[in-house]
């Protein structure tokens, strides 16, 4: 990416650009509709003036879009309904297609790619670095990929094959190949002369990689050290031999955590034999972090994946049905648990009104515990030595909460139904359901972690299912024993 | 931070270090307990051998901790129960206290600061840059801050005052003062000589800031361009005049979004008059993003703030009570809604067993909608023009989901209770509750955004409250009208 690309200097300007674009698109839509109505009514095609007007609006849009950074164009594309999105996509200069496709969300990328023919896709992909092509590859038709492969020079073809070989979520899938490599035995003067022969250095070059003839990584020379050191010194005398490196097969999340902890800008990626194969940069890490937390938030909200906000109704239904179905099953189970006690409810209808309180607070408390534990697991803070201490702590918190809030709901039940036994049963049920919530809130994520599964996945649904059915069973069971 | 600081090169090693530290601490605890038991039994203080053994364990711990990066020591401190945490804290070299305090979470920092006396705190703070002191300041006793102020040279005192003047969440609160400033009219040769006189460049120096005598920011010179350009060229001829800059009062979230979009490593911060006042770096952005998403995830889980996993039971209860109380109130409301229909439930007990299904699926669907809308709002993707389209889309998705899942639950009700009218009422109730969920899922966050509130705050609790009470009311109301 050229460093001089016009960028919007005030973050609010992007939203302004979006507002201006939607206003222009609205006018464009009106003109198109007018023309279609006229054609329907008179059978006459658009008059030259009308067509000129539309052309003018388009030109204004183009002037708005041209100076924008690809990320800002991507942002505008994501915020537009499909027909308007495609009008904008047509106006974007073809030589920026590749960069913009990289920046848009997966869901929106799909709508744009569907609209392009193979020739356009090959041209768009041709503008990109091999690691970027690898990022797009899963979304491209296989004929396009084959064509792209054929058009690449042999070295880049090898790089693309390498980049595509690493599964999503590994360091290899995030790395790029823009590294500046130097030898240990030359002086900094030679290095400086070498750099000056390059037109520009790759983005995020904060260090040079020192390798030997077998591509073994020997050390790093930070650019900043290059600048402050006497040029007569040899590379081997200033290079750092003790540094963070990643293996291409390593979990990308671990690498991202290391970037965060050690404030890295770039880091070398090596293979099992210690040979330099690529580099990871902080901007890839930032994108990875964003995607990861977005997914966590979406999945906590019950969405399967990033949804294009203007996806068709049918696509949205597909994106959402899985969670609704799971929820329905757990609701059916809870319903059957209540069904077991229909006799008791028939005798004491107050139970029906009170039971959701026990279930609801149980779910809330269980989610608090599970959120803590999932987070501690993600940070690797849970060891064999402290796990049991944590378990006891959570049980104690729940017991105390159960007594406090159980007391409150007990008083509530007494005040409304003037039945102190009912109040006592509510309090007892609350304590028991919160203890159940705490135990499961600790055990479920720990068990999933032991089994090698992501403890965050579905944790909230599971705990809520347990505290619902469990809460109903405990409360109605106690009521059946002591009250009816 | 020295670039040569020993860092753990494999991310898994941090967890290993934690496991080794806990094993040593466990041994240490045992020795202390043994000594105390012996003293209780015999009244004799610890024998010299026992004391030597404890000393040996401590020494091993120190050897483990010394080479670790401050962020890794922070990580270990966070994963330990309080007493063990303080043993480790005592062993950490005093000259690293400041850096480590910066790295630990707020909750854990509190426990460490409580344990230090004013003298130690002033010494620890003295090791830090002014922008870092400003980060710690809210947690320090005011006498310590006053002492720190007194000990700083006048220029840094001014910087600290400046850094502390920006509220949390602004660019000013995240910026640092480690900028290299140059003049427009000198050659790159002069700049290179100037840099060589410095011992090292500040971390994350990827560009130099060009200012005039009035401190007005005129441009930027990327370090990489400095390296590839002929040294005889003047700064004014190579500097970038078109670049991203931030105002110190700006929202940090907007700045972070710009870092993400434009792949920045550092960016200048200016005041209202355009004078350079500081710089923002990608590592501050990464930390900010992490904290922000952590808070979102914690608050979605019903926790008020980051909780020290070994907080006392009482502290945990305090951290969690607010959400439980809010939940209790909404549960009471739902309970009273059910109470309105106790007569109907008494006549048809099946209603009690079926009603949680309508409420549950409504909450799930409402959370899906609200998650989408909150996200689109956060990204600024919702404009006046597309808001109504979004609203219609969400209503359509819900209507379709209502018919599908309403049909399923209707059949479920019919199969269990052999009452087709009950099945129809369930289906109708499901459609209506999902439409309610969709409307509120769109309107609540949009209204909160209009009112200048964070739309994510409490959105999930509110939508669930509405779909619970609303679902009970719709289902029991329809049942009362048509069934009993």
Structure in words:
The structure is a homodimer of 484-residue chains. Chain A folds into 3 domains: 12-169, Alpha Horseshoe (MgtE N-terminal fold), CATH 1.25.60; 181-300, CBS-domain (Roll), CATH 3.10.580.10; 313-482, Tetracycline Repressor, domain 2. Helices cover 68% and strands 5% of the residues of chain A. Chain A has 22 helices and 6 strands.
The computed structural class of chain A is mainly alpha
Rg of chain A (C-alpha, Å): 30 Å
- Helix and strand string of chain A, N-terminal first? HHHHHHHHHHHEHEEHHEHEEHHHHHHH
Biggest sheet architecture of chain A: 3 strands, mixed
**Could you please say which CATH topology of the largest domain in chain A applies here?**
Tetracycline Repressor, domain 2
Order of strands across the main sheet of chain A: 1-2-3
Largest interface, Cβ cutoff 8 Å: A-B, 149 and 148 residues
Please tell me the total number of domains of chain A.
3
The tally of strands of chain A reads 6
Poorly predicted spans of chain A: 1-9
Quaternary class: homodimer
Work out the strand percent of chain A: 5-15%
The CATH homologous superfamily of the largest domain in chain A is called SLC41 divalent cation transporters, integral membrane domain
